[in-house]
Amino acid sequence: MDKELHRIASTCIIYKDNSASAQGFGEAKKYLLLQRSFEKKAFPGKWTVPGGGLSVDDYINMPKTTSEHWYFALENSLRREISEEAGIEVGELKYLCDMTFIRPDKIPVVILSFYASYKNGEVVLDKDSINHAWANYEEAREYDMVEGLIDEIKMVDEKIK
């Protein structure tokens, strides 16, 4: 295993105000949860948030930002993943945390977790997800989520209060 090569992925915890809560009924923030297809190799059927891997195709065919570099490749890939997986747009992406793991095929992965407010669009799922829900933190705890994700949602919940 090359100790310097990693797959880079990103995820986004998307939140919006619950209109009922603005009138004093329940918690204000709801988070978008997606249920992964049971056909997926990793975490089949588990609930997660939009995201995916950074590919060279996410920037190689774009004009360089400087004479040698592409800025915002990760942000652009995450926005693309959100649009593909959920059909929505989000506001400013804010960094939350990072996580690493080794996949079963021995490829090391770095996941950069972000959070953003819902901007617009109706949720339309792609083939990788079979269900979605908007849930506040307490409700999200009842879902069978990818390990650690509920802790990230709690971190966001505390940051945006």
Describe the structure.
The protein has one domain: Nucleoside Triphosphate Pyrophosphohydrolase (Alpha-Beta Complex), CATH 3.90.79.10. It is 18% helix and 34% strand. It contains three helices and eight strands; from the N terminus they run E-E-E-E-H-E-E-E-E-H-H. Strands 1, 2, 3, 4, 5, 6, 7 and 8 form an eight-stranded mixed sheet that branches. The chain has 161 residues and is α+β, with helices and mostly antiparallel strands. About 3% of the residues have low confidence. It is globular, with a radius of gyration of 16 Å.
Overall helicity: 10-25%
CATH class categorisation: Alpha Beta
CATH fold label: Nucleoside Triphosphate Pyrophosphohydrolase
How many individual domains? 1
Give a quick summary of the entry:
It contains 3 helices and 8 strands. The protein has helices spanning 73-86, 137-140, 149-159; strands at 7-17, 29-36, 47-48, 51-53, 89-90, 94-102, 108-120, 129-135.
